[in-house]
C-alpha cells in the first residue's frame, strides 16, 4: 500500500555511530564544490583517524606489557596517504605484490618494517623483499625452497621469514603449512644455516572471534619454543588481522536484522542475514586486541599476554579495516530519480564497484546521508529510495535496500556513505563504461574551511 507515492510500511534503517569529524565535512559545503570539480563520485580520507587507531592498538600492547608491532594491511585501501602515515609513525605495512611493496618503499616505509604475505610469491617479489630486508611470511614448502635458493645465490643479507601455519580449525584453507609441513620447513631452515633468519610463525583466521585467535596464538608460542631448541631465532608471532569494526549501535543492528524483509529491497532482492558483515560488534578494534591478550587459552593457567612476556615473544598483527575505522567516506551525486510504487530509484554518477561489499553477494548497509546544496535535510516522514549505479547492468545497485531518507532526493543532491575506507572504496573499482576511477581527497584539516589535497601515488 502506498500513499502519495510513498510506502506506508515501515522501512528499516541502519544509522552509523555518530561521527563529529564526518559531520563537520558534510556541513562544510566542501562536498558539492568537489563534486562539481571532479564531475563524478569521489572518496574523502581523514588521516588523523588512522593515526588515532594506530595509537589505540599500540596503547593496548603497552597496557598489557607486551612488545608488539602493528602492520597496516595495505590491501584494505590503496591510498598513498596511509603509507605516508605509516612512514611518519614508524609503523609497519603488510604487502602482497611487487606493486604494493614498491609503493610502501616509495613513501618512505623502511624494508625492515614491511612484511610480505600472500600465496605463491613470484621470484621478483621475493628478490625485492630480500634486497630490502623485508620479512616474508612463507606459505608453502616450494616457496621456502625458492627463498632459500635466492638467499644462497648472491643475496647480501639473510632471508628473514615467518612460517605461516594452517589453522587446524580451518583445515580447508588454501593458505599455510600443516603440522607435517611445519616440521619439514623447520628442518630446511636449520639446514640453510646463515642464509635464512627464521623469526617465527604467523597465521590468519577467518572471522572475528577472539578466543580462537588467542588459542592459535598460544600454539604458535609453543612452536617458537620448539624452533629455538633447534637453534632458530623464532622470537615473534603474527596473528594477522580479523579485528572487527563497529559501524552501528547494537539496538539498531539487531532491530534491522529482525525487521528486514524482501519487500524492503528493490526487486524483492533477498539476502541471508549471515551474508552481511557484522555491522555491530561489541568488541572491536583495539578493544578486540585487548580481549585477545587477556584470554587464557583452553587448558592454560595464564593469559596470552603473560605467555608472550614470559617467553620473550613479540606479537605482530596486520589490521587493515580496524586502522581505517572512521577514516573516510564515499560521495555520489544523484543524477536521476525515477518513481516506482511507493519508492524512488535513484541513479548516481558512479557504480557499485566503488562499494565493494557487492563483491561478497552482500550489501554495504550503514545508511548513506543525504546532503542537498543547502545542507542536510531533516524530517519525520521517510522517503524510501534504492540507489542504482550509472551502468547498464541490472545488477549494478549501489544499495538494493530502500533507504528511508528524511526528504525526497533530487538531482544534484549528494549521497555520502559513511566509514567506507576499510575494504569498500577501491577493492573492486574499475573504469567500466570508461568512467574514471573516483579520486581520493585527503582532508588534512577540518572545520568551517577544510584543507584538502588529492591523494598522491608514486609513478611505477
Automatic annotation (TrEMBL):
GO terms for biological process, alphabetical: lysine biosynthetic process via diaminopimelate
Coiled coil: none
Start and end residues of each stretch annotated as Disordered: 1-20
Any Pfam family the entry gives: Orn_Arg_deC_N
InterPro entries per record: Ala_racemase/Decarboxylase_C (IPR009006), De-COase2_N (IPR022644), Orn/DAP/Arg_de-COase (IPR000183), PLP-binding_barrel (IPR029066), Y4yA-like (IPR042152)
Residues annotated as catalytic: 392 (proton donor)
Molecular functions (GO terms): diaminopimelate decarboxylase activity
Cofactor(s) listed in the protein's UniProt record: pyridoxal 5'-phosphate
UniProt keyword terms in alphabetical order: Pyridoxal phosphate
Name by which UniProt lists this protein: Amino acid decarboxylase
Biological source species: Streptomyces lydicus
Taxonomic lineage: Bacteria, Bacillati, Actinomycetota, Actinomycetes, Kitasatosporales
Amino acid at each position: 500500500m502506498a500513499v502519495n507515492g510513498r510506502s506506508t510500511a515501515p522501512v528499516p534503517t541502519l544509522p552509523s555511530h555518530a561521527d563529529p569529524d564526518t559531520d563537520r565535512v558534510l556541513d562544510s559545503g566542501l562536498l558539492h564544490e568537489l563534486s562539481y570539480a571532479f564531475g563524478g563520485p569521489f572518496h574523502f580520507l581523514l588521516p588523523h583517524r588512522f593515526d588515532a587507531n594506530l595509537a589505540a592498538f599500540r596503547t593496548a600492547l603497552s597496557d598489557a606489557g607486551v612488545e608488539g608491532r602493528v602492520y597496516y594491511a595495505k590491501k584494505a585501501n590503496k591510498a598513498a596517504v596511509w603509507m605516508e602515515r605509516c612512514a611518519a609513525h614508524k609503523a609497519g605495512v603488510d604487502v602482497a605484490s611487487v606493486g604494493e611493496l614498491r609503493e610502501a618503499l616509495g613513501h618512505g616505509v623502511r624494508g625492515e618494517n614491511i612484511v610480505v604475505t600472500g600465496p605463491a610469491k613470484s621470484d621478483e617479489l621475493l628478490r625485492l623483499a630480500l634486497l630490502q630486508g623485508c620479512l616474508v611470511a612463507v606459505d608453502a614448502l616450494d616457496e621456502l625452497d625458492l627463498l632459500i635458493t635466492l638467499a644462497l645465490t648472491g643475496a647480501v643479507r639473510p632471508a628473514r621469514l615467518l612460517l605461516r601455519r594452517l589453522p587446524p580449525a580451518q583445515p580447508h584453507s588454501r593458505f599455510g603449512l600443516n603440522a607435517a609441513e611445519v616440521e619439514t620447513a623447520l628442518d630446511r631452515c636449520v639446514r640453510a644455516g646463515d642464509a635464512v633468519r627464521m623469526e617465527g610463525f604467523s597465521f590468519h583466521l577467518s572471522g572475528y572471534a577472539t578466543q580462537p585467535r588467542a588459542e592459535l596464538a598460544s600454539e604458535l608460542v609453543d612452536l617458537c619454543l620448539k624452533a629455538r631448541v633447534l637453534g632458530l631465532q623464532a622470537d615473534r608471532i603474527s596473528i594477522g588481522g580479523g579485528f572487527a569494526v563497529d559501524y552501528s549501535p547494537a539496538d539498531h543492528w539487531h532491530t534491522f536484522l529482525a525487521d528486514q524483509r524482501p519487500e524492503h529491497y528493490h526487486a524483492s532482492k533477498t539476502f541471508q542475514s549471515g551474508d552481511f558483515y557484522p555491522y555491530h560488534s561489541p568488541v572491536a578494534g583495539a578493544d578486540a586486541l585487548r580481549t585477545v591478550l587477556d584470554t587464557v587459552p583452553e587448558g592454560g593457567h595464564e593469559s596470552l599476554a603473560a605467555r608472550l612476556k614470559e617467553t620473550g615473544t613479540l606479537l605482530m598483527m596486520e589490521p587493515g579495516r580496524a586502522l581505517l575505522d572512521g577514516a573516510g567516506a564515499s560521495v555520489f551525486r544523484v543524477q536521476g530519480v525515477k518513481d516506482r510504487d511507493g519508492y524512488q530509484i535513484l541513479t548516481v554518477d558512479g557504480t557499485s564497484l566503488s562499494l565493494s561489499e557487492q563483491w561478497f553477494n552482500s550489501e554495504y548497509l550503514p545508511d548513506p546521508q543525504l546532503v542537498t546544496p543547502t545542507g542536510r535535510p531533516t524530517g519525520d516522514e521517510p522517503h524510501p529510495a534504492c540507489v542504482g549505479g550509472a551502468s547498464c547492468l541490472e545488477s549494478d545497485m549501489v544499495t538494493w535496500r530502500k533507504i528511508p531518507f528524511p526528504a525526497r532526493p533530487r538531482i544534484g543532491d549528494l549521497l555520502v556513505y559513511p566509514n567506507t575506507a576499510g575494504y569498500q572504496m577501491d577493492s573492486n573499482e574499475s573504469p567500466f563504461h570508461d568512467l574514471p576511477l573516483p579520486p581520493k581527497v585527503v582532508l588534512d584539516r577540518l572545520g568551517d574551511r577544510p584543507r584538502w589535497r588529492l591523494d598522491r601515488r608514486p609513478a611505477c
